[in-house]
Amino acid sequence: MSTIAGTTTGTREMMMGNEAIARGALEAGVQFVTGYPGTPSSEIVETVARSARETGVYVEWSINEKVAAEVAAAASFAGLRTLTAMKTAGFNVALDFLAHLGYSGLGKHGGSMVVVVCDDPEGHSSGDEADSRWFAQTEGAPLLEPDSPQEAKEMTTWAFELSEQFNCYVMVRSYTRLSLASGPVTLGRIPEIGKKAQFDTSQETISPYMPKPSHVRQHQRLASIRPLFERSRFNWYQGPEKPELLIICSGIGTRYSLEAVGALGLEKSVGILKLGTLWPFPTKLVAEHLARTRRVLMVEEVDPFLESHAKILAFDSPAVSKDLKIYGKDSGHIPAEGELNPSIVMKGLAELFGLDYTIREADYERKISTAVDKLLINRGVAWCPGCPHRASFWAVKQAIRKDGRDGFPTGDIGCYTLDVYPSGSQQIKALHAMGSGVGLASGFGKLAQFGLEQPVVAICGDSTFFHASIPGLINAVRNRANMVLVLLDNSATAMTGFQPHPGTETDILGEAAPVISTEAICRSIGCHVEVSDPFDIKGTTAKLLRLMKEDGTKVMIMRRICELVRMKEERTFPFKVWIDAEKCRGEKCSFCTRFFKCPALPWDRETGKAVIDEATCVGCGVCVEICPPGAIFREVTA
Predict the structure, then answer these.
(1) Buried-most residue among 7, 33, 70, 325 (CB within 10 A)?
(2) Which domains does the chain have, with CATH numbers?
(3) C-alpha 24: how far from its chain's center?
(4) Which pTM does this prediction carry?
(5) Residue 125, burial from CB neighbour count under 10 angstroms (0-12, 13-18, 19+)
(6) Residue of higher predicted confidence among 210 and 65
(7) Are 133 and 143 in contact (CB under 8 A)?
(8) What is the pLDDT at residue 1?
(9) Partners of 236 in the beta sheet?
(10) Lowest-pLDDT range of 198-212, 255-269, 477-491
(11) Please, is 59 exposed, middle or buried when counting C-beta atoms within 10 Å of its C-beta (0-12, 13-18, 19+)?
């Protein structure tokens, strides 16, 4: 879809859940949108950005999620409708501010703020599968959870109205199977945006500086919202008046529950209560349905959030039978981790009804694995051909080996995370959150007095440097930690879709933007900084080796544009690369395929030699540098 705002009102379009959220925001009259890229949330901000010039909406990729929330809140303080979007890991970053904002409210201005948090059950592109619903409870934020793209659009629009009415930010929880899946969406009208920003300086300071009274107001706000949630159209029931078993579900669990009940033919025995308004918990509605049955199955991802509140309610409510049994994650009928699917729900129902049902044959996994192995070559998750990170990690490995003190890298989140997979060099020995590699290295770098003699090399990307690494680097300098930061600058937020960041020349709209120099930042705080092209493996290795032997906090910037970005812009091959089969040592060496592991360097089983796969080779020529017998050659193509 070229522009999300250019589609005719009343039509039905296939939209990703993220696109539907963006459309819902536009239909609500959103004027200010912020975020930080992170799968599965990135497309929300990008979709709004595609219509920014047409609609007049301001859109930015902020430096991190905390700043994104603060920037959006400022616009809401000035009376605008604002939205900020992030994945769950980013919500952790934003929480320091949002926890206070939950107490203070948005001020007396008439603005609104919606926070969209996209969870990642199964951890497809995340380091965890944390459940953000608990934050709504702990921070006192109203929480909505859609089960389809259509509902995602409608809920987002309603969230703005709730926010304005109750002077607080409202959370909309999405998740991978909604954000990145598509479904039909009926489009509404996008209103003209005419409201001007104006901050009322006569009002009291917007701050939770009196925590207890602020906390009281927060609870009063939630109590006022609860009646709306009790009768919301986003909660519904389907099934018999007094079901033999009641399913309580939300989000994707709703779709799977409907499918499971239908597949097992249990429509006359099982009722389904779908909840879309999760916090404040709609206690009267749930209690009313609990009173109609003796057995309940809770269907939800990831944590037992609904289950916990249903059990508390069942214990407290006099209308609910004391013989009521609630099944779910605690009972083992629904898994306590990972994504759901219809088969999982069917299996749980079948156990409760004594039906003979198995998800699949016991040896199904073995059969399918055998069949796939015959058809496909499993290459695993790997860096792209020509990726500068492959050369960078090669240089890091050589420098650590030559140093001889058993040094090791610490890392964080980016394309370079692929190092820890089998197709990588598997050098990183500690891998956690954005910027954590620098913080950990700062700690390791202060352990000499306790006998640690191993050098530590922190690794981060250029986007991650701006997002979360600078404080850790300042800490290392301030406390005189011995460490080297290797900053992998590929001029993009490549892992999540090549979004711009403060070190690139354009903003989210493709317009020229000030470039923030990483070298200048590092040198300004007292770091010795070296810059190198990672494709110059010998030179890069030598520079890094020298830095590892120096005392203090040093920075090595390995700069080379992401190959996918370069190829898109230049559409050229720097070199023609080939292998001299006579010089190739074959299985006696296999250095390029076993250790360098470029996907464009496969193994020819017939000849027992490495070959260049011309369909995938991008002509970077780095393999020439690492071939021990010098069997790989390159020729400039230009």
Answers:
(1) 33
(2) 12-230 (3.40.50.970), 236-353 (3.40.50.920), 388-569 (3.40.50.970), 572-636 (3.30.70.20)
(3) 21
(4) 0.91
(5) middle
(6) 65
(7) yes
(8) 44
(9) 274
(10) 198-212
(11) buried
